[in-house]
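[job 0412] stage=fold_complex status=start
inputs:
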Amino acid sequence: MKKSTLIIAVSVVVGILIIAIVYLLTRQQTSGDKQGFIYTEKVFSDYKGTKIVEEKFIKKQQKQKLELDSLKAVIQVSEAAVKGNLTELQKVKMQAKRNEYMRLMEEYGSENEAEFQQAKQALWIQINQYIKKYGTENGYVFIHGANGTGSLMFADSTYNITEPVVEYINKEFEGK
Amino acid sequence: MKRNLYNILLCTLFLSSCSGPVLLSPSEYMKWVEDTGNGLRKEKQIGELIFDIQLRPTDYVLCKSGELDGLISEGLLDSLRRGYDSTLFFSIILKGADGKDPLSVNGNAESALYYFQYQFQQDIYLECDETNSKKVPPVLFHFERFYTLNNSKVFLVAFDKKELIRDKDIKLVIDSKYLSSGLVQFSFDNKQIREQPHIQL
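[job 0412] stage=fold_complex status=done
writing structure:
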């Protein structure tokens, strides 16, 4: 009776050990192999956050363009009205309007550029964060970024995970 | 036999459709609301910043305010509820990753403090559903400043419920130029808000 119990106990322990070893080996093998790549430009452009920021920028630039156009129209109308016969005072006023137009154009240009760079940086921070989460949740060891600059020269298309990544990061962006 | 089964099924359906919200004790209710799995609390990390957003239903606000202490009548509870019912409350907790102070995340702590105190509220709004692009600004904003070792920064914001569309999902949007996180949004399912438990005295 005692002998049979001992045999059962030993076989159970051996069984558990075998299962544990097989599990560890297969886990190491599968997780070690799990890699994927994404087309970074596509991820960036298809990200919902990018689309919202772009829309906001377009609206803002349209508003600025309207303002500049109306100022330009005022200058042109004034110039046409006096047809070159300008007094000194009129010349000064005209020049002030032209300067104002140039100043606004430059100001908007540099403001937009700075805002665009800041927004782009923020979008990449978000995308990187969500991709990191995607990789962790799905057991990836590497997710490579292909952007055509040579960082990834070739990868089999079966490793392309751009679509699921875009889907995942857009869901994360929604904050659901 | 078949008819009995049909009747039982019908009764079950009727009873389940008639059942009101689940009733919980104040402490259980608070735990339920603060559980991220129940949809009223959302957490998101963007770079070095962690956003912890808590939707605060009326009952939760009452629990936190201490107004329930010594309250014994359900009628009085309802009148207290009505007092808060026109407003939707949220708490926004900003934390730095690895316990860092979020004021130090973007450089100058003094300018960060000024921003959080006076300008942050302009970068927060609510949106209803995807079809409605109307931005609802907060009607109340409060920056809680704690001088403790805890580096989290707590903000309480409230929105006018009349501005929101009934039975639509809502999105809390934080679109800050000051923070490096960019536009961040948190969606709250209307069904989860509607079907949440209530407190029982």
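[job 0412] summary: Residues 2-18 of chain B form the longest helix (17 residues).
[job 0412] exit 0
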